[in-house]
Design goal:
This protein is mostly beta strands. It has one helix at residues 344-347; strands spanning 2-3, 32-37, 41-43, 46-48, 53-57, 63-67, 79-84, 90-94, 98-100, 103-105, 110-117, 123-130, 144-149, 155-159, 163-166, 172-175, 180-187, 193-200, 214-219, 226-230, 234-236, 239-241, 245-253, 259-267, 278-284, 293-297, 303-306, 316-319, 326-330, 340-342, 356-359, 362-365, 369-375, 380-385, 390-396, 401-407, 413-417, 429-435, 441-444. The chain has 2 domains: 30-284, Hemopexin (4 Propeller), CATH 2.110.10; 293-444, Immunoglobulin-like (Sandwich), CATH 2.60.40. The longest helix is centred in the last third of the chain and has 4 residues, at 344-347.
């Protein structure tokens, strides 16, 4: 994936906060990317087929099989589009017509799967959501190959080719395979009724070639940004790539006249899916309701935390060492989200390696860590820590970001060369951190440029 504009935020740009420690995502429900492939293969030791759906943890990088289509009668078919609902149920469409639970399901239909179990032992039941033949989807070119849900919970779809369907505003809507159309339902299920309008016109924003057929889509519910996969190679203004990418469209207008810009979202090449042709796509944004955690900066001497009791206070005590002398005790307030912050003007303490901090029942012994180099010219980050220590890092501004981990070498130096991955700019901020066993962090910040 190549771009002159980068907006990569921790795995999937539109969905995930920049994962500096202060914005850490809850452990109990991490943001997840759901992906399907038009071919079989394996990733992280997990074998999958085209009727399966994979789940990728966007924070920790792990893979699992979310839906095993062969367990529920889809072994000889391809789940070529899907949407994962908040309750774990699925909307699906199939590449080929098939009889399911006594009913004929066409490739222009959308069905719902209500699971009783998921993963390697998938079980559950199906029901009809949209009978395409009831609403004008009857030709071979009108087979559905992408589905999503709009922020106002209407069904979006794209088809394999040209279509003609009833338009909500009257007359006939004509659309092509690089578009998304929205269904204004009057009824759903076995007796589907309703009409369509254009939601996204791909030709307006550079999707015109046969290989740029939309094969997967997901809409971020708060911003309206649209994540999508394409049939093959794509080239739009400032961005090009291939069938293994998830790209994101940030709209300024939608509908008959679509305007906006694309930015990179996620690259399968970087996560074990090289050579796969991605089709279905969905995202779970996760929940930020994990255990309380805090961090303290060696560079700027502040202490802050999150996920504590909202609109209350925490007790912070700073000692010179573990078992040593208490240098400061205070009870800063938490905000409505459970966050607190203590600046050095309040504590008067110069934090250093070995400083021991208690926040309620959580503790941290600060580790040796520096962040000495932030070089936008050569895209280099560097610093020091104890040899063999794992260091997390995150850098970014309001429109672009990058995070990752590295390890200090045998001399205690760590170095990250981002020249082939990310363009550092002088207006970006950053942090490096070392996490203890329960997630509290020693922070170092780079010098001013």
């Amino acid at each position: 994936m190549t771009s002159r504009r980068t907006k990569v935020l921790a795995g999937l740009a539109l969905a995930i906060p920049l994962l500096l420690p202060g914005a850490a995502t809850a452990d109990d429900h991490e943001p997840t990317l759901y992906i399907g492939s038009a071919t079989g293969g394996s990733v992280a030791g997990i074998s999958f087929a085209d009727e399966d759906i994979l789940a990728h943890d966007l924070v920790n990088g792990g893979w699992t099989k979310y839906f095993d289509g062969s367990d529920v009668g889809l072994r000889w078919n391809d789940v070529n589009a899907f949407h994962v609902a908040d309750d774990g149920s699925l909307l699906l469409t199939l590449e080929r017509p098939q009889r399911i639970e006594g009913r004929w399901v066409d490739d222009s239909d959308v069905i719902a799967f209500s699971p009783t179990s998921l993963g390697e032992h998938t079980a559950g039941s199906f029901e009809m959501v949209l009978d395409g033949s009831d609403v004008g989807l009857s030709k071979w070119s009108e087979d559905i190959d992408a589905i999503a849900v709009t922020p106002d919970e209407r069904l979006l779809l794209s088809t394999t080719g040209r279509l003609r369907v009833p338009r909500t505003s009257g007359g006939t809507l004509q659309s092509t395979d690089e578009d998304l159309i929205v269904f204004d339902a009057e009824s759903l299920g076995e007796q589907t009724a309703g009409t369509f309008e254009r939601y996204f016109d791909g030709s307006d924003v550079g999707l015109r070639r046969e290989s740029e057929d939309i094969w997967g889509a997901w809409v971020e519910p708060d911003t309206g940004d649209i994540a999508m996969t394409t049939r093959g190679n794509y080239q739009v203004p400032d961005l090009s790539g291939d069938k293994e990418d998830v790209i994101v469209f940030e709209p300024t207008s939608l509908g008959i006249t679509t305007t906006g810009s694309f930015y990179p979202g996620w690259d399968g090449d970087d996560h074990g899916l090289s050579g796969q042709r991605l089709d279905g796509l969905s995202v779970d944004l996760g929940q930020q309701t994990g255990d309380p955690q805090f961090q303290a900066s060696l560079t700027n001497d502040w202490v802050s935390g999150w996920n504590f009791t909202p609109d209350a206070t925490v007790t912070v005590t700073i000692y010179d060492t573990l078992g040593g002398t208490a240098l400061f005790t205070g009870t800063p307030p938490t905000d409505p989200d459970g966050n607190f912050h203590l600046d050095p003007g309040t504590t008067g303490i110069d934090l250093m390696p070995g400083t021991y901090i208690e926040v309620d029942d959580r503790t941290l012994v600060m580790e040796p860590l520096t962040f000495d180099t932030f070089d936008p010219t050569n895209d280099i980050l560097a610093g020091t820590a104890n040899p063999g220590t794992t260091i997390g890092f995150g850098i970014g501004n309001e429109t672009a970001g990058f995070d990752g981990t590295t390890t200090a070498d045998s001399t205690g130096n760590w170095n990250v060369d981002l020249s082939t991955q990310f363009d550092l700019t002088a207006d970006m901020g950053g942090q490096a951190w070392i996490s203890d066993t329960d997630g509290d962090q020693t922070i170092a910040e780079p010098p001013p440029i």
